[in-house]
Design brief:
- The chain is mainly alpha-helical.
- It has one domain (7-121).
- The protein is 79% helix and 0% strand.
- It has helices spanning 7-80, 90-94, 103-121.
Length: 124
Amino acid sequence: MEFVVTRQEEEDDALHWSRSFKDLIEMDLVRFSSVVKLWKRICAETTAELNLLADNWKYLLAGLVCQYIHGLAARGVHYIHRPGPTLQDLGFIFLPELGQDKAYISETLFSLIFLSFVLVRFQP
């Protein structure tokens, strides 16, 4: 069996490949332009954030100082703490300690409350 390629088939094949290449170039240009737009947006957002930081750095520094003092105080209180009897309140009376074998109840309850908060909070 002999395979014969005619001139018309060769031209059609060349035309097909040139169109495909042209389409690829156009797709790459579209992709490149969207990347450039994204980069410009990132630069603009970063510039805006840096301007805000330049204006409000004093508040951030004050917050960091307060966090450091809080950490020192928490460690100091932990160091001088002497354990005493557990304080009793209505929560301990109505719901005594569950123990390690029933810890899943507490975890499940917490997970339900937390997930419901997230779902309600971020609902459109």
